Amino acid sequence: MAARDAQNRTRYAFIAVTVVAVAIMFVLFNGALSWSRLAPRHPPEEKVQQTITQQWLKSTRITNSLLGIDVGVDDIPIVGSFSLYILAVWFFYSIRRENHLIARLLIDSKTGEDKKFTPEIFHGVCSYLVFTTLTKDDEPIDNVDPKTKLSLIFYLRPTFVALIYLPAITIAFMIIADIVTLYFLSIRTPNISMLENMSPPQWVHFAIRNGIALVAGTTIYHLCTQILRFERATGKILREYHDKYV
């Protein structure tokens, strides 16, 4: 079924963009907010300092030996923004195709002469849905009699919306972390902060990389908004189809 293939593609795109965003956020956290970055300031002894520093530096890199990728936290605003943008575009087109295929399948089936297959079509599509909910009932079904009382877990829907916007949230965290690190002691110059040690070329590089991240983040935010619209549209048309034809 074409709709099922489209749902699978959307799921893979969602997983990919989520994994990459989470990986970037971990690296940004280790680079900007990790307690280990303070270790060079108070070394108990030289060997311990070197070990802790090496471990901290390793935690600020994303490495994929299969693809030959090794990206440091300094390159994340550019490389990470570009990667998240590509994945967000892939996610957008996947969920757009999913919505269009499901909607056209439902429209074609409701206008056909034989309506006996509408329940099978509806349940076949719903069987591949994960996050698109058709009801506000988050309770398990434990009997064959209809239930009148609905139970909604209030934090699940906002969590899903946050996951949709996770790439844009990651870009925002990326820019904030880059600004915050200016006020920390630099591992290259342990006695002064990076803000006090920045040269004009470094300021230019700082502005360029964060400008790229800002543009990418704004575009990704718009894509995430459209992705959420398509997801909600799919849920809406499925609910309408169920109420009228199933």
Question: Main traits of this protein?
Answer:
246 residues; mainly alpha; two-stranded antiparallel sheet; 8 helices
Structure description:
With 246 residues, the protein is mainly α. It contains eight helices and two strands. Strand 1 and strand 2 (69-72) form a beta hairpin. The two termini are 20 Å apart. The model has no long low-confidence stretch (mean pLDDT 80).
Q: Low-confidence stretches at least 5 residues in length (pLDDT < 50)?
A: none
Give the mean pLDDT: 80
SSE succession: HHEEHHHHHH
| Beta-strand content | under 5%
Give the secondary structure arrangement, pairings included.
Blueprint: H1 2-32, H2 46-59, E1 61-64, E2 69-72, H3 76-111, H4 118-126, H5 156-164, H6 166-180, H7 194-197, H8 200-245
Antiparallel strand pairs: 1-2
Helix pairs in contact: 1-3, 1-6, 3-4, 3-6, 3-8, 4-8, 6-8
